[in-house]
Write a structure and sequence with these properties.
Blueprint: E1 5-9, E2 19-25, H1 31-43, E3 48-55, E4 64-70, H2 73-83, E5 95-98, H3 114-125, E6 131-139, E7 155-168, E8 173-186, H4 191-214, E9 217-222, E10 227-231, H5 263-266
Antiparallel strand pairs: 1-9, 2-4, 2-5, 3-4, 6-7, 7-8, 9-10
Amino acid sequence: MEIEVDILEFKVPLENNKTIFIWDIQPIFSEAYIYEYLWKVFSAFGALYLLKVCPNAKVAEPGFYAMVKFYSSVHASNAQKSIDRKCLFQSSPVKVRLSSKQNLAFYSSKPLSLSKCLDLANHYLGFGGWSTHIITFKDLSKCVDAGCQQETVEGVLLKYGCITELSFPHHGVSCRGVGVAEDVLDDDLDPEERVRKRGTLMKRAKDNGVMNAFEKVLLLVLGNGKVAIEIKTDPDEVLPEENSEGVIQVNDISWKQFERASDEDAEDDFPWDLTEHFPQ
């Protein structure tokens, strides 16, 4: 007996078969009400990355349209088939279709923000299904090998690096991630603000390390509802062993690749273009 397996990655889902559009939404309720109702309906099919509700263009009839982005193509397909032509909260049926856009290849896949990683992990594994801890933490501000300069035109450059371990105790697997954060301290900052900014950078480095670890995780969602975990390995990656004494490997590269968009900007980075030809 074959069991269906859906493979989910901790990346922004861009595939057409994970996106559905809803239109013919009547303007009888507020945008906020429609959002809450649609989130409740569609999240019952699986974890959602994104839901957006927008008013129709001025040239069209009054009303709304919406986009729902799933992590799973199976969940998106099930939702489309189940909700299409249903009335939901109004007297007339809504139309639900999978995305037909063909230009998503122009957008490279991006890692999830930290809040999205935690939401996805908690949805499938539960709040006790995973844990993180810091392996090593280092101040890279004065590291010449990393191409850093202690003094800049604007002030003092601060840079921190962190290696974190992400563990899944119920599955017996773990992986590690590297995170780096940097910023410039203005010379005129008062001591309290300097301490606050250092603390913020240290937290960002740790959070980036957790996100980097999640990028290596594959969730294998089985048709019977069970979840297995696989870890993607990179043969070129070099991380310190457990008994290393606070050592973090620093290469002569730009650490900007480890910087992540803030959670507030994560959804804005998603291409929000509805210039599609919807089937009638």
